[in-house]
Structures are given as structure tokens and as C-alpha cells.
Specification:
Blueprint (H helix, E strand, L loop, with lengths): L1 E4 L4 E4 L30 E2 L13 E7 L11 H15 L5 E6 L4 H12 L6 E6 L3 H9 L4 E5 L4 H7 L4 H17 L3 E7 L6 H19 L4 E6 L16 H11 L7 E5 L6 H10 L4 E4 L13 H12 L8 H14 L16 E2 L2 H9 L9 H5 L4 E2 L6 H12 L13 H15 L8 H11 L5 H23 L2 H5 L2 H14 L3 E8 L9 E2 L4 H4 L12 H9 L3 E2 L3 E2 L6 E10 L5 E10 H12 L5
Parallel strand pairs: 2-3, 4-5, 4-11, 5-6, 6-7, 7-8, 8-9, 9-10, 10-11, 12-13
Antiparallel strand pairs: 1-2, 14-15, 14-19, 16-18, 17-18, 18-19
Keywords: Methyltransferase, Transferase
Family: Belongs to the alpha-IPM synthase/homocitrate synthase family.
GO molecular function: methyltransferase activity
Length: 612
């Protein structure tokens, strides 16, 4: 029982009897004094402090393709192969990232496993994951995997309330599946699910001791994964079981007879302790810390694999052949190939993690990056540091931001004499002349830089152009075939275009011309731009414009290059397509100007799951 100690000003832990045999109970022990549920969980202390005792070899294991897929749309098979290959390169020749765990349920999952196996990488070793079910072991065997995780929940919350078993039945069930795996020549890895709410000496240690017997009898290295399923683990000196990470690790090693090299820590971030818990497990003897790339995992996520790599280097004083620069390649792959929006401030992988936005810090960073950069991020991660711009940055600050942000080197660098740089700097000055007090962040600077230095963003433009092409085809599908357009009657066409514009804010201007190049509609714009487009005459001959000529010539959708709108001064792209009558003859051209800034915002919202 946890009881308040007024002298120590902490909750005292009441010790139970430490036994090594299974303790059966009719009712589940839910430890309500520590886990009240209707209130925030408690942390109690027994005031005993464990000495540090790290393992001979600290390893990292991965569950990006298992637990990591429980928090996001499933990866495509080719994406899994690409990520796995990057992980192999990050791991280095010693295989510090020793294993990677895969789902095996769907044919897509199994296809990904087979394709990863074809790469022939020794590390990370591909392993499986199954529930405590003999039938699921057959898939592991069919895929020729040497090891699989087995779900063996250990808390009474799971045993009694989820599985509907008692402790004895749960133990028998788990041991039976472990024996089945051994009989099939598969190395078992038992996942002690929800261990930080479990009765350590009433169930966990007895279970571990039974596994130790099987390990000795079979000669097979049966592993144990300590799963902090709800993120309840704590590292505080003197904290008590079952929440104390040091005491959990030592109990499994010393009382459950499991060598540290056969143990893993798997944590969740419900209480913001996921990384410190994992590294603490290392320090007290746990052989491996388990994580996922970018920390993906159910609910609040798992330990970020990239953070474990950096912590390993910090603790060991060397990288042991790992290549941290691959972390940046992984971040780029998630951003560009998968389309995931990494929060900009995310350590090591976020776009702005090594950028400072405080004016005084930016000044110091420009004088010497070591003052405010956590380490040489360019040398370690291939990520140059960057600064946010203020009125004190000057032309030199703008030039520095551009060259660092765009990774421009040697002759490719811009200097203060570039007209585009001058225009960006003038925009910055105007911001502060208008009364701005805050720094100008990277997102704002990128929008302005794209506008004034579009040639520097060629690859980005190519990607956006593909997106615009897809939008153009969508417009064609949604609008061009509509009967209202075929009439070419303004009274029929204009309401349709107004509704479409309202539903798609990335479009700043829509219009339709006849087959001679003259407008048949008024200017369809957002109300905020209407005055600007009021200057556009409806009797202008547009037949010499590319957006008119190309669809009239080949009957296909046309997408322009990027340009600056003379009406709104925004960076835009034009899409247009042919309108046909009932005889399938082209009678007009429908056009739309798409605003780049709004398109980027829409992409970011989509990548963030629809949240702005």
C-alpha cells in the first residue's frame, strides 16, 4: 500500500514478501493505491537505490513495422523495404540496431518481409510478432524467421480483465506456446505486456523462472521484453516496483534468472518518459532498448529510434560504425516519399530542430554556431544550422539563412547582390517598419524565398507541379464534363465555378473562355481578391496564351510553370482544360490559377491527418 510520509514528503511503499513461486489470487490485484484510475497514478518509494550495472553490449531493436504501424496508415511494401534498407545503413557494420520486428498477418505484410529478406542484410535481423497462439507460429516458420515475439501479458489488468483467465491458466497458456515455438525451431521472445502494473513477485518473476528452466533444457536463448505498455515506468532513485525501471531490470536479471543480454525494454510515452526509461534500462543491465523510427507507436508512441542512436553515442563515447547522417535521409524519405509532415521542432529530424528564433541567439549563432547549436549538426547529421530572421539580421543574415536552408555550396551560393535577396530583405525591413516585434520563422521565409528566388526551389516545384497536375485532372473530372459548362451560358457556368472556388481555397482565380479566346464568364475570385481582378477586362483576346493554345491543340489538360500573379503578387501555377459540347467538339477552355502558398498549407494539413 502507498502511504503518505509527512517527514519525507513522499508516498511510502509497503513491502510485500518476495517469492519465486506463482501466487494465485481469486481477484485481480489492480494496485488501486498506485493506479486509482479516477485520478492521476501515484509514484511510491521504498528508498532503496540500485547501483548502475550496464550490460557488456548495449543494443537497439526496432518495431517500426509492428508497433509503429499501429499509429499511422500502414506502409506500402515498397516503403517498408526502403525504410528497412535505410535502417540497415544507420545500424552500421556491427549491427547496433540488431533486430527489426514485423507484422505477419496480411499478404502485404508477408510480401514486405520477403522483399526485405531478398536484400540479404544481416542486420537488423528480421523477426516476427504473434499472439500466444500456436497457429500463428506457422506463418513465422513459413517465412523462415529464426525469432518471433509472443504476446504474453503479465498484469492482472490483462490476465483477468482482458483475457478472462487466472494467473495459473495464463502461465500454462504462455508456456505452452513457448514450447510450441521451441518444437518448431523458432526462438521465442516473450513480451511481458503491461509489466509496470504487474505483480512482480506474484507472477512476473515466477514466469521468468519457468522460462529460465526451458532455456536451460532447450539450450535456446529465450528472450524477455519488458513492455511498459502504458508508460508508467519511472527512473527516480528509490522508487518502488512495479514502476521502478532499475528495480524491474534487476528483478528479472537477479530473481527471474534472465541474463541482461536476453532482455529488451519497450516503452510508451504516455507520461513523457519514453527515452529516459529506455536508456535507464540500458544502464541497469537491460541488453536492448526497443524503439521505432520517429517514435511512431500506439497512443503517444514508442522510443524514437533516432534518439536511441544519439543516446548510445552519448553513453558509449563512440558511434560503433553507426552513421547518424542516415537519420536525415530517413527524415527526408518520410517527408518526400511518404508525405508525412514531421513537426518542425522534433529533435534530430524536424526541419527547425537546429534553428534558433530568438534574435539575440541568432546573433550569437551567426558569430559562432557553437554558442547555440547542440553540436555540429552538419558534420553529425548533415543538417546545417539555421537562424530565424529579425530586423537586426541585415542582408548578411538573409544570405546566411538562404545558403544554410537550401544547402547551397561554393558557386551555387547566393550573395547580397542578388536581386532576389534584395527583394527578400526589403520585405523583411517592411515587416518591422510596420510594427512587427516577433522573429520571422522559417516557414514564412520559405514562402517569401519561393516567390523571389523560384529557381532555387526547382525540385520542390517539380513535386508541387505533379500535385497540381493531379489537381488539374481532378478539376477536369469534376467540372469539365458537367452539363452546365457544355452550355457555355454564364448564368449556368458562373454559380458552378463560384461553388467550386469556395470549396477549394488553393484556387485564387477561375475563368472560362470560348474557342476564340474571349471570356464568357466574369472573373471568379475570392472576395478578398475581387477588387484586384476588377482591373481584368472581359474583352481581352487570350488566344495567344499557352494555357489556351495547348488544350485547343491537343485536347489535354495543360499545367504551366510557376509564375508571380500580376494581380495578387502571389506565386501561382495555371491549370486549364478543354470544354466540349454534346458533339464532343471543343467549344471553350476552363482555367484556374492555383496559389502555391495555399497549396502548401493544404498539403501540410493533409500530411498532419487533416489537422491544421
Amino acid at each position: 500500500m502507498a502511504k503518505w510520509n509527512a517527514r519525507r514528503r513522499l508516498l511510502d511503499h509497503t513491502h510485500g514478501v518476495h517469492v519465486t513461486q506463482l501466487t494465485e489470487t481469486k481477484e485481480p490485484n489492480l494496485m488501486r493505491e498506485v493506479f486509482p484510475y479516477t485520478d492521476v497514478c501515484r509514484i511510491d518509494f521504498d528508498y532503496k537505490v540500485q547501483p548502475l550495472d550496464p550490460p557488456d553490449e548495449m543494443l537497439i531493436t526496432d518495431t517500426t513495422f509492428r508497433d509503429g504501424q499501429q499509429a499511422r496508415p500502414p506502409y506500402k511494401a515498397e516503403q517498408i523495404v526502403a525504410i528497412y534498407d535505410l535502417m540497415h545503413r544507420l545500424s552500421g557494420p556491427k549491427g547496433i540496431i540488431r533486430q527489426s520486428e514485423f507484422f505477419l498477418y496480411s499478404e502485404k505484410d508477408r510480401e514486405a518481409v520477403r522483399k526485405c529478406q531478398e536484400l540479404g542484410h544481416r542486420f537488423p535481423e528480421i523477426t516476427g510478432w504473434v499472439r500466444a497462439n500456436k497457429d500463428e507460429l506457422k506463418v513465422v516458420k513459413e517465412l523462415n524467421l529464426k525469432e518471433t515475439g509472443i504476446l504474453t501479458s503479465v498484469s492482472d489488468y490483462h490476465i483477468f480483465l482482458k483475457l478472462g483467465l487466472d494467473r495459473k491458466k495464463a502461465l500454462d497458456k504462455y508456456l505452452g506456446v513457448v514450447k510450441d515455438a521451441l518444437d518448431m525451431g523458432i526462438r521465442p521472445r516473450c513480451h511481458f505486456e503491461d509489466i509496470t502494473r504487474a505483480d512482480i513477485y506474484g507472477f512476473v518473476v515466477p514466469f521468468g523462472r519457468e522460462l529460465a528452466k526451458l532455456r536451460e533444457e532447450s539450450g535456446v536463448d529465450i528472450k524477455i521484453r519488458l513492455c511498459d505498455t502504458m508508460g508508467y515506468g519511472v527512473t527516480y532513485p528509490g522508487s518502488a516496483l512495479p514502476r521502478s525501471v532499475p528495480k524491474l531490470v534487476r528483478a528479472i536479471i537477479e530473481d527471474a534468472s534472465c541474463p541482461g543480454m536476453l532482455m529488451e525494454w519497450h516503452g510508451h510515452n504516455d507520461f513523457y518518459k519514453v527515452l529516459i526509461n529506455a536508456t535507464t534500462a540500458w544502464l541497469y543491465g537491460c541488453g536492448a532498448a526497443n524503439g521505432t523510427l520517429l517514435g511512431f507507436g500506439e497512443r503517444t508512441g514508442n522510443t524514437p529510434l533516432e534518439a536511441l542512436v544519439m543516446e548510445y553515442i552519448s553513453l558509449k563515447g563512440k558511434d560503433d560504425g553507426m552513421d547518424p547522417k542516415v537519420i536525415t535521409e530517413i527524415a527526408d524519405y518520410f517527408t518526400n516519399a511518404i508525405g508525412y509532415h514531421i513537426p518542425p521542432a522534433t529533435p534530430f529530424v524536424g526541419r527547425d530542430f537546429n534553428s534558433t528564433s530568438a534574435g539575440i541567439h541568432a546573433d550569437g549563432l551567426m558569430k559562432n554556431p557553437e554558442i547555440y547549436n547542440i553540436f555540429d549538426t552538419e558534420a553529425v547529421l548533415d543538417r546545417p544550422y539555421s537562424i530565424a530572421i529579425t530586423d537586426k539580421s541585415g542582408l548578411a543574415g538573409v544570405v546566411h539563412w538562404l545558403n544554410q536552408r537550401l544547402k547551397l555550396k561554393d558557386d551555387a551560393k547566393v550573395d547580397k547582390r542578388h536581386p532576389g535577396v534584395q527583394r527578400i530583405y526589403n520585405w523583411v525591413k517592411q515587416q518591422y517598419e510596420d510594427g512587427r516585434l516577433t522573429t520571422i520563422g522559417n516557414a514564412e521565409m520559405e514562402v517569401v524565398s519561393r516567390k523571389h528566388l523560384p529557381q532555387m526551389f526547382v525540385s520542390e516545384f517539380d513535386r508541387l507541379k505533379k500535385h497540381a497536375i493531379a489537381l488539374a485532372h481532378s478539376i477536369g473530372k469534376d467540372l469539365i464534363e458537367r452539363e452546365e459548362l457544355k452550355t457555355m451560358a454564364p448564368a449556368m457556368v458562373e454559380p458552378l465555378l463560384e461553388d467550386y472556388l469556395e470549396a477549394n481555397p488553393f484556387i485564387q482565380f477561375m475563368y472560362m473562355v470560348n474557342d476564340q479566346g474571349y471570356m464568357v464568364t466574369k472573373n471568379i475570385t475570392h472576395i478578398t481578391d475581387r477588387a484586384k481582378y476588377g482591373r481584368a477586362s472581359l474583352d481581352v483576346d487570350y488566344s495567344d496564351r499557352d494555357w489556351f493554345i495547348q488544350p485547343m491543340k491537343d485536347g489535354k489538360v495543360y499545367v504551366s510553370d510557376f509564375y508571380t500573379s500580376r494581380f495578387t503578387n502571389a506565386l501561382c501555377i495555371t491549370v486549364s482544360g478543354p470544354v466540349r459540347n454534346t458533339d464532343d467538339r471543343i467549344v471553350g477552355i476552363l482555367g484556374a490559377d492555383i496559389r502555391l502558398e495555399e497549396l502548401l498549407k493544404m498539403e501540410a494539413k493533409e500530411a498532419n491527418g487533416g489537422n491544421s
